[in-house]
Each structure stands twice: as C-alpha cells, then as structure tokens.
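User: Could you walk me through two proteins back to back? I'd like the raw sequence and the structure tokens for each, with a short line separating them so I can tell where one ends and the next begins.

Assistant: Of course. Protein one, sequence then structure:
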Amino acid sequence: MDESIHEKYIEAGKIAGEVLKYCCSLAKPGVKLLDVAEKGEELIRSKGAGLAFPLNIGINSIAAHYTPSHSDEKVFEKGDLAKIDLGAHLDGYIADTARTVEIGTNKHSNLIAASKAALDRAIDTVKAGVDVAKIGKVIEEEIKHRNFSSINNLSGHKMERYHLHVGFNIPNVARFQFGKKLKEDYVIAIEPFATDGGGHVKNSTGGNIYLLEHPEWARYPSEKEFVRKAKKEFTDLPFSERWCTSLIPKERLLFLLSTMSKRRILHAYPQLVEVRNGLVAQTEHTVIVTEDGCEPTTRI
C-alpha cells in the first residue's frame, strides 16, 4: 500500500475511534439521539475528515440502519442497549467502527462482552491468505460459547476508496463458506452482532438513510436537480435525510425521497430488526490486512 494512502487510513481510523468514544460518553437517559448524531458528525468534520455514512444509532432490537431524522425527538432511555456506528474518511479512505453502550444500567454486560470478545478473536485470526469463512467460524464459536447467538444475515465488509461495501462480506457465522481469501492491503470492517434473540434480522421501516442507486433514471427536473447536488455532496457514499435539508426545501424533501426511492433512483435502507425482538450488541473495527496479521485502524 502506498504510504500516503496508509497514512490516510490510519488517521481516519484515529478520528473515527476518538469520535466514537466521545459519542458513547454523550449517550445518557433523556439525551436526544439527534443531538448525539449531530455532535458526532460535526466532530468528525471539525477534525478534517468527511462522513463515510450517517451516524447510526440502533436501540435494543434495532441492529442497524437507523439514523435520526432532522426532526427526531427520540431520547435514550434508562436500560436501553444502544449501538453507535460511525464512519470517517480522508480523501475517500474509510474507517468504520461501532460500540454498544448500556444506558444507565448494567444488566446486559455479558451480551456486550460477547460481541467484543468475538471481534477480538476475529482480529487475531486475520492475515493474508485466510479464508473469510474462518473468521465467521471463530465469531460464531465465541458468541455461542457465551450462550448467545451470532446474527447470521449481518456481516462485515471489504472497503475501497469512496466505497463502503465492495467485493465480498466478512461473515459472522461458520456455515457461509465463501471461498474468499484475504490479501495483503485489503481493508475490511469486522462487526460481530450478538443477540439473545433468534440470530436473524428482518427488514423494518425506513431508517432515514439513502444511497444513489440508479441516478441515470432521474427524469423530472426536481429529480435531476437532487441527483446533481447529491453526487457533488455525497459522491458514492450513503447519506441521511437530515443532510439533504440544505439541498432541497424541507416541505418537498420527504416526498421527493419517497418517490425517488420507489423508482429506485435512490436506495432507501430499511431498519434491520432482530426477528424475535431480541437485544442486539455490536462491536466493530476497521483493519488493514498484512502478511502475518492485521493493523486495526480504529482501535484507540
């Protein structure tokens, strides 16, 4: 890997790790989810990085793909299990990291520990030449050993410049035999999800997160205007409804996002919810694969 690129990955990881720690410290009973999301995103920008995706906050059985809307009034409540997942990039070189915090109680520390321990074991497994199926195996074994289930249809992912998900996934269970082997300089995000539920997620309602899917299908002037502005502002990365309030008047925004999603100009990410409404814990780090191991970029 070119040294200048390596430095950007390392610095992006440092920024993401620092901001995640800060956001977790803000998550307390009565605090708005929107405030944590906006403060975290603003801190990423103030440190000179770009936003790789909207800051996600998944409460309890919501595993992924929820970010507050611009008018969101939801607050953290005592006993919530909150997953905070964020990403920063420098010149398109991405760091993706997540942690789970329990709000005001300490009843689910074992579930949080299961996800964290699985991530630690997975990181110890990574090196050039390792089949990603082996990573899924150690993740599932560790979580199962602690009497929880690894969510079988959520996974980590390979990343490239300005692309959050590319190539193949990093499984969280053993039975997926992809036959994909890691190579030196691959950048991957590993994110075990542990649950006391059924070990599977289903699509729910929209999570206020979007991606340009088929921008070439825009036909009407308002759609073309939005696509032009979104490409310039967000490139090929996901974006949130609240980020768009500076692009399109609020009174038109929700209708436009809805119609463009139905026509697949945009991809609207659904919230991913545990099938039995089980609690979900997530821990995530980005690593750079090396010949004999890996270099975590977001572990601070």
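----
Protein two, same layout:
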Amino acid sequence: MKTILLAGFGAMGQSIFDQLRDDPRIGRWLVLERAERADDARRKLGRHGQVVQSVDGLETRPDFAVECAGHEALGTLVPRLLEQGIDTIVASVGALALPGMVDRLDAACRAGGAQLTLVPGALAGVDALAAARESGLASVHYTGRKPPGSWRGTAAASLCDLEHLAEATVFFEGTAREAAATFPQNANVAAMVGLAGLGLDQTRVRLIADPAAGGNTHTISARGAFGRLEVMVEAAAFASNPKTSALAGMSIVRAVRNRLNAIVI
C-alpha cells in the first residue's frame, strides 16, 4: 500500500482526501499543514495518517506527494520534495508562469531523479493540445467565462463593475503569462494551456465576466498542422470557492489514481 504526502489541507486538500480515503491501495496519509491548523487537520484525518509540519526528516518516506497548498508552495516546498527524489503532483500550475520557475523545478527534478506532474484541472483537451504541438501549432487561444461572483476579490474588480454587469464583459486580453500574473487566483487554467501548447508568451487569453453564465466555462481553440481543435467545458464551481471549478479537484484525484492503477487512461 502507498503512503501519500498531501501538502495543504484546505477545502481542496480535504476534498481530495475525502474522495480517496477509502481506497484500499493507500495505506497512509502524511498531511503537511500549518501549526495553527494542525489540530483541525488531525481531527479530520483520524486514523488514516498523521499531520506533519515539515518535509524534512520524515519518519515515513512518501511514495509520492500531492501539492494543493497554493502558488507559494511551488517555490518553497515542491523543489525540496523533488530534490529528495519524491515525485509530486501539482495543482498550483499557475505558479509556473513566474520568471524562472520552470527552470528551477526542472533542475530540482534532475537533481533528485523525480518527476513533476501537472494536472489539467478544469480543462479538457490538454492531451490533444500537447500532442498537436509535436507537429507544430499556428495559434492557441484560451477563453475563460465565469459569473461575476467568481471574479470577486481579483483584479477584475478594478477593471469592470462586477456588481452591476448587465451583459458579458471582456475585462482582459493578453498572453497566458500576463493572465497568470494578473489573476493568480484564476491562473492555473491559462498557464496550463500555455505550457501544453505554444508557450506562455504565445498563447492568447481572454477573460470574461458574464452574469448569464451558469458555471465556469473554459474554452481552448487551436490550429496547426494537425488540423483544428475546439473544446469547451462548463464546470460547476467548487462549493467553498467559486473561483475554482469542482473539476479541478477531480483532476487531482484522477492523477493520484493513475499512480495507483495498473492501466492508466
């Protein structure tokens, strides 16, 4: 049975644990959480594992790790895991848009002989986009459309009147790297499209606040030697965080199961 290190036990981390808790192939969870939240994490974790405050000097070495601790963890925690040879599944893909982050993580992987897995989150078609890159891509566009409430607390609030929108409003157009830097709370999907396709600086992004939107909609459009790709997902929002699609957590669960399954899809 596998031992999994789960970095971050907020709403997303708890959702992942809840969905995987009874998988008989998982023998133990190591949950990395801040001291002030450790007691609550221990109560929710119960008999399934233990709470730790550091990845250094662990009594039990995890078979692999899952990061859902936020973008800061990509620059601090994840390199240390990789350098120790611990394969890591990463949810906070948007952090890879930061200058030098890809190179830093690549170096850590090489130093420890570990592998970093980026999950597509709420996106569909990432596998096809990455495959199409092999024969050359001419253009890649990502459009994110969400209800105004899903953009509250982000830079969108200063770019349009989220409280009184009467129609769909485009408040950002730029590159995937610019989108990730300007909207870090919504950056994972834009960064993932950029990393899978033409790159962060060549991928075009459009962000829309739409009072008529029934959920968080993600659309990828691409053209190249392979032909034409158009894929759209309208995802329900995560119950405790409307900025995130519920499918994002399911994507992490799928990545974990792929580490456990004999046959991987």
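The domain at 2-118 is CATH 3.40.50.720 (Rossmann fold).

Let me know if you want the two compared in more detail.
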